[in-house]
Amino acid sequence: MEKKEQKRHQHKHSGPKADKKNRKKEQGTEPERDERKRNPRAFSVQSAVRMAKTFHRTQDIKTKKHHIPLVDRTPLEPPPVVVVVMGPPKVGKSTLIRCLIKNYTRQKLSDICGPVTIVSGKKRRLTFIECNNDINSMIDLAKVADLVLMLIDASFGFEMETFEFLNICQVHGFPRVMGVLTHLDTFKNNKTLSKTKKRLKHRFWTEVYQGAKLFYLSGMVYGEYQTQEVKNLGRFISVMKFRPLVWRTSHPYVVADRMEDLTDPEDIRLNPKCDRTVSLYGYLRGTFLKNKCQVHIPGVGDFSVADVSFLPDPCPLPEVIKKRALNVKERLLYAPMAGVGGLVYDKDAVYIDMPSGHGSQQQEVRPTTELVQSLIGTQATLDAKMAASKVTCLMFSVLIVRKQNPMESREWDERAQRERRRAVFADEDDDDDDDDDGDGEQESDEEEDEEEDDEEDEDEEGVTTLKKHDKTAAETAAPPVKKQKCEVPMEMPAFADSDDELEKSEEDESEEDESEEEEENEENEEMEEGEPAKKSSGPDSGLCSEDDDEDEEEDSDTDEDGDGTVKSKMSSKHPEEENIDTDDAEMEVQNGHNLEDLAQKATEAYLRHQLAAPNLRKLVYGTVAEKEEDDSNDEEELGGLFKVNRPEKSKKVRADAMDCSRFQPDNSHDWDQEEVRSSIRDCFVTGKWEEDKDAATLLKEDEELYGDFEDLETGQVHKAKTGNKDQAEEAPQVKLDDDEVQKNKRLEKKRRLKERFDAQYDDGDATYFDDLKEEMQKQAELNRQEFEDVDDEIRVQYEGFRPGMYVRVEIPALPCEFVTNFDPHYPIILGGLGPSEGNVGYLQMRLKKHRWHNRILKTRDPLILSLGWRRFQTIPLYYIEDHNGRHRLLKYTPEHMHCGATIWGPITPQGTGFLAVQTVGGIKASFRIAATGVVLDLDKSVTIVKKLKLIGYPYKIFKNTSFIQGMFNTVLEVAKFEGASIRTVSGIKGQIKKALRTPPGAFRATFEDRLLMSDIVFLRSWYPASVPQLYNPVTSLLMPVGQKETWAGMRTLGQLKHDLGIRNKPNQDSLYKPVVRQVRHFNPLHIPKELQKALPFKNKPKQMQAKGKTPRDLQRPAVVREPHEKKVAALLDALSSVYAYKNKKARAEQHAKHKEFLKQKEKQEAERQKRMKEERKKTYRAMGQKEKKKLKSSLKGASKDN
Amino acid sequence: MEFEGCNCFRQRLVLSTLSGKRVKIRNIRSKDDNPGLRDFEASFIRLLDKVTNGTRIEINQTGTVLFYQPGLLYGGSVEHECNVQRSIGYYLEALLMLAPFMKTPLRAVLKGVTNDPTDPSVDLLKVTAIPLMKKFGIDGDGLEIKVLKRGMAPAGGGEVLFTCPVRRSMKPVHLTEPGKIKRIRGTAFSVRVSPQMANRIVDSARSILNKFIPDIYIYTDHMKGASSGKSPGFGLTLVAETVNGTFLGAEVVSTPQGQGDPVLPEDLGRNCAKLLLEEVYRGGCVDSTNQSLSLLYMTLGQQDVSKTLLGPLSPYTVEFLRHIRDFFQIMFKIEQQKPGEDEQKGGEKVLMTCVGAGYSNINKTIK
């Protein structure tokens, strides 16, 4: 490489700096500076400006470190950390997972198949997932990974997959990345090893961040990594902290670790390709998951969830933390897809499949499709299985309420040749009977159960109220789709009209334990409570006005129905409960009495809820179902022909009622009366204040705090009230109050004092940032506390399922390929979608072609995007924003610049990153990630335009006006463009004036100059481009096993042409031809004679004629020498050349001599220098010795002096 | 989602627009002599169409079935001629719910009836809804309701300007302490009647309220000429402000010309004062007209716990809660708070608690 000459520094010749320099030069020495400058003090302010600058800079640096504080929404019991082990094939991923699992749990897992969840510590669980070399899995796993272990084969170096994966991670929020170098034992030479390590480390750092952790696994011992190294890695993993990522904290997601097909086998038999109902299991992560929400399964598509329920944790954290390390029992392992730790359902029991803790009993390698096979292999019918699953759910849900400790009973399974630990629960015997309890689990089930209960009730009792009619009608109207689900062997009537369906679930749970008497007591209590509530709502019935109305309606209706029994409000509510009592009684007889304390607890809980959530919630949420069914009830057919169209009943009126938000007051309050008026007396500042806010008390407290003070104006001295006076006043009160009240008061006072102190001393430097942080903290605290003591069943309804729960998500209508082509090596992710994220629209995004991708992207070529949870193929249009805000279409993406892109795709919140690949099938490009970017805007319309030039030709030219044709076809078109500016190619601007009648499309236009007939006129305009509406989700999971990475969507035009062998026939004009240039012939310039005459000589054309032949008389004759002359000339020639030779020789000699002389001189000089140096050295040494002597002597003298 | 009947028409469309779920409403007044959508509902749909982009609306021949596929909220400058069957409040209430979630700040000019007895009037919303919105973090100078012209029922002719800035997300709120009322303000207005009417209203209202608190000021607002609309009428809006910034409002308007018995201004003033007392009796941190608005904003907040103390739930609010559950799967924790033994602070209160849906304004552009 040749080195380029660098430009030299140019000294300034003018300006303040040059002036300053000049002045300095002129004066020679610097002017006398004042003392402050000459002798600065260390820490004083030299310059206010600089001081300000440094201060600003430090502040800038300080504030740059701040992150926007976020509310801490991590759940108390977080879900397992997802550890994705990634790397190219044959790099040692499975070995590493195996080693880590062995390190944590002392168990051996031979086949890593699907996610493996383990308990790694007292507060942490890990889920290991192996990422195979498919870009689909890489994309999916990058979206859910908390920690990525990036395996790198050191003997080979980095591979493209590693960089691709890093780029994927970057786009979807960067999870923690830890590099692990393997195959280090292949280096024999220590030096090359350390060099390679260093090189790889630095490259890794530039990709991730400076100082990113890189682990070295030096070598294998018996097919495993070295224990100590694995242990170190494990320690690093288990103490790692994670940042919350925006997308994940705002979307719920489940990494499914278990899949079950719930479809009716009969349906499958009839139509093997029928849509499947599938339930997926996994830990919920991210944020709250609402029931019946929409989810996206990457690789499959969008689905709405039929049902979500939470299950007991299959891999729970140890309950009590007191020991230092976990014992073997607590080191759980759960990997159902690998066939370990999975629950296997039997008719009435649950087997937890688990190898024993010792490595001696190794599990055999199982086929990957084991789960599916086991599913196929099971003999039980689906219904039975369903029932069984219910049972188990129930068992667990019961367990949640109590302690979560199943008893263990070991069994030797001969088939599997290993010990199995059957989980036996304390009340397992009972659960055949009260299957119904399962309805506590899900809302929908609950409703249906309830409905059925009602039906039964009716059948049995014949007691009907209108409400019931309504309800049953609803059931008949309801689609019987999910009936199958609730076919439980025996049904137990629930509290059909208990105060709250939510509470009911709890009751159901607890009722099996409750004894009869207590039940009755409860009913009584409930009644007693119900009554006063009703009464209290009498005067201010605003609160429950609707309810009352309803009740009244019911009452009247029941009267009309002629049941004969005019029931009071209470009685209309209670027959069912009584029924329940009797039923319960039966149950209790069956169950036997037990566990008094439990019952006690249940009663307490029940009462608490009774108090906390009375009728109102039922009023709001419980009665919704009743409203729609009136129709079917009303329209009884008369004689099979006519429908009775009754005058509209109250309910019907309500459906078409006036839509008005105003809350009309009832007239029960007469505000003219004094007592009514006094009921709101305290709402005003003039009324009575609370104890702690009353001005008098506050004043008094102040006095207590500050004691006596002197009023300076009056000179009066106020003494603090002495204790005895105070006591004397309060003495009777104190006696009444307990010690506790006193204590509380004291505490309160202390708190207030502390607050005041804090306000005085701490808040001085509290910044906005601190305030914000504190606010967030408070919010987080509140979020945690608000629903803490609520039962999970109810809590789930308020909050949704919270992250950390183990959930079962049922999804109907999945394509059958999902089940038939199921491969546990591919991750299944359920990504929850926010409101309106399931819709499709136009997305505007900022996009940049990846620098490493080796070709630019073409507009309208299909591209596969990974955006949000999704991977889909779409057709982008690239554009760039002009200075006036116009979005101009681009044919290709710019090389190294951002451009805009508009696609038709799923609505995703702005700010979400995305990446694009051209194909997911195979590896064609050297670097597969084609582009990255971010969503900017969502819209339902597009604003991209492309340039359109309309061309016309003048056919008649007047002065500045021309008639133009060929630009438009009709008069109407011209009319639309009247007044538009046009231009000729030569640059003459003009304007369209008016259409001409003939020929159609011609118009009159004026220009700023006269046109030529050869001019071309054009009109620049913009034509809106339309975005093709292609949204094609990548369905890679539906591909057959082994071909999952071969998904191919729409082909690009180029590919199509290539595949079909179509070649474009190019425009003849566009072809390149050899350039043939004709020699140009210029005519001579002709200047008229007259003009020539007038011109000055300088400008006159010079007639330069070619020189003719010299005439004979002018030609000079050649000289012919005489022989003598010739001789003389020859001699002179010889002499001169001899002289020249002599001269030359002499000079060369001289030169050589001089060279010698110079050499000599140099030598002498060197000698002289050497001598001088030695001399100098000598002198200095002498001087130094002298100096030393002097110093010594002076010291001596000094010591002598002393 | 499918619904029946024209009840809660606005709620359904507004929630559908916010949640992006399409809605089909059937049997709209199908049994009525005059079936189908009314003019004011059609006008409302048109207004929604104006503030959104890409909305699809299909109505059948008789107007008994409506299919609504929401587009994206666009905002910008909108002018709408509201039908005079309902007052501008009917339209404005829905706009209040939608306005913070637009792409560009909304600037709506609504023309029609400003005050009528059925709907909450523009004045009431101005004094109660705007301070409430501020608590949710929608503030800045852009937030404003301005009565340009006053138009009474039945002929209308009023004009209202509503501007609102856009927000990315709502702040969670904790409005559990309403505080004590420190002042009462109000506006007595009269158009196309004697200006004396307003003064008479003020006197009568003061006579009642003075027994509670001395800090009362009621403005009189007499509009003349072009800004007085097409029909005569008068009315009073009262608002009580507490020390914690809660605004409780009440209003009464004279009966429209040619409908029902005329009312005396004195009676009207007294009635309005009593209504305010009733409102105070109900209490809470949000007054009864804005309950649904506050609940909606709570629902659309970040995923944090929000709390609001309300007075008794109005039937409209109860319906709204059900719809929120249908559209957003959000249930509120409803706790009743009974008044204490010796404190005299009106009736029962309801503490509403919910965890926000984590909603963010997907319409707003980022640059």
From TrEMBL, chain A:
GO terms for cellular component: 90S preribosome; nucleoplasm; small-subunit processome. Residues 1-45, 406-597, 1094-1116, 1146-1202 are annotated as: Disordered. PROSITE patterns: G_BMS1. Residues 78-243 form the Bms1-type G domain. Coiled coil: none annotated. PANTHER family: RIBOSOME BIOGENESIS PROTEIN (PTHR12858), RIBOSOME BIOGENESIS PROTEIN BMS1 HOMOLOG (PTHR12858:SF2). This is BMS1 ribosome biogenesis factor.
From TrEMBL, chain B:
The keyword Cell division does not apply. Residues 176-280 form the RNA 3'-terminal phosphate cyclase insert domain. Residues 2-334 form the RNA 3'-terminal phosphate cyclase domain. Its main location: nucleus. It is found in: Nucleus, Nucleolus. Keywords: Nucleus, Ribosome biogenesis. GO terms for molecular function: RNA endonuclease activity. This is RNA 3'-terminal phosphate cyclase-like protein. It comes from Cyprinus carpio carpio.
